[in-house]
């Protein structure tokens, strides 16, 4: 198999190995790393793999994309990542909900959100990348979170030798449970900072630090080097490709599909990483028909697919699906690069327009290459109705982000002309958003304490609390830093003793 090398979407770097891309996170020119050639699954792959465990599928996908890692290294990373941290042996159950929809349950990991699927393995990939590239400095994971990435990244990197992790999150912009999960995180190498702003402010601030040459020099002198745990890191994105491939093998094993038949995929997304992973799964040979991009009230992606204009100049809403409360979808840059025909200069120009004016337009020929994508959005009333109606009908309780996807999926199913199975990415446990979810089932829960609701949810569903929710309300608070957006760099320097 030929080696897969990576390049920046903005043209500044080419022929970068997978381990170098993972270690660096963001390209030096501010672009994102993408494969210079897309690998492909071998003939007969799905029939051969349809009864194989998740770990085997994950290994095969990593083996395709991360070709400078040895087979032994990849097997070791996979086995360390997908173990008893997950509360079900199959790692990712595929559950039928309704007539022709199958929920890909991505929330059975240590922090009960889909971010665990990639952030359980990223620390192992990254520490091996550091050794491969003779990096002597400690790796500082610098990341912004809209709620789930931060906790999942810290859980993965806590007390990993040779690493530090600093997470920024928007104060008041995440659920109470999400915040409590972060501020109680253990690990001597972890730090959490609440910023006075929204997720886009946090993400922009992190990217600015990555691009700051003077800060990088100060870090290196102090024995540190930056990397990222956001899905801007290709080491986050590639493991996400695996679960869409796995989902197809499960539908094959269940007899829902025969090999080669298409399924449609519906993904709730804000930063565009999760649905981009599904797109990559299709590019390497997974039989996927349409990719349905589901947005919440912050519907910047829906508007982009409808009009060809990406415009972040709009009101920002705090919703019941906070991990999707995003107006700058960083991973979309990878798709933009693809539909320009890998034109780095054009991609860089569009990203410059976004940075300076908050918007850009794509051409009609670029829009024509988006035919595989459908889009939809759900408002707050629709999200709540979907949760309540699905529970009453199916006795299946979903979280708010999954409900965005389920609402959009139902509308898409009515208008599509092909009757294909739908694989729907279920991205978080309902326990993570107890107040919103329980209020959707019955308004009598609306004024209840969030943590009391966890026990009531157990009674309602007949399921015990996930391990991630055990004693969370009584865990000691270990992180209480806050800062303004303008103070993010100074805060990082204080944490690292620069």
Report, as a whole number of angstroms, the end-to-end distance: 44 Å
Number of strands: 15
Mean pLDDT: 94
List the strand order in the largest sheet: 3-4-14-9-10-13
Q: What's the CATH C level of the domain at 94-112 and 235-463?
A: Alpha Beta
- How would you sum up the major sheet? 6 strands, mixed
- Low-confidence stretches are none
Strand content: 5-15%
What does this structure look like?
This protein is an alpha/beta fold and about 500 residues long. It has a domain at about 95-110 and about 235-465: Rossmann fold (3-Layer(aba) Sandwich). It is about 45% helix and about 15% strand. It contains 21 helices and 15 strands. The chain has helices spanning about 20-25, 45-50, 55-65, 70-80, 115-120, 120-130, 150-155, 175-185, 200-210, 215-220, 235-255, 275-285, 300-305, 330-340, 345-355, 365-370, 380-395, 400-415, 435-440, 450-460, 490-495, and strands at about 5-10, 35, 95, 100-105, 140-145, 165-170, 190-195, 225, 265-270, 290-295, 310, 360, 375, 420-425, 480-485. A six-stranded mixed beta sheet has the order 3-4-14-9-10-13, sandwiched between helices. Helix 12 links the parallel strand 9 and strand 10. Helix 3 (about 55-65) crosses helix 4 (about 70-80). The chain is globular. The model has no long low-confidence stretch (mean pLDDT about 95).
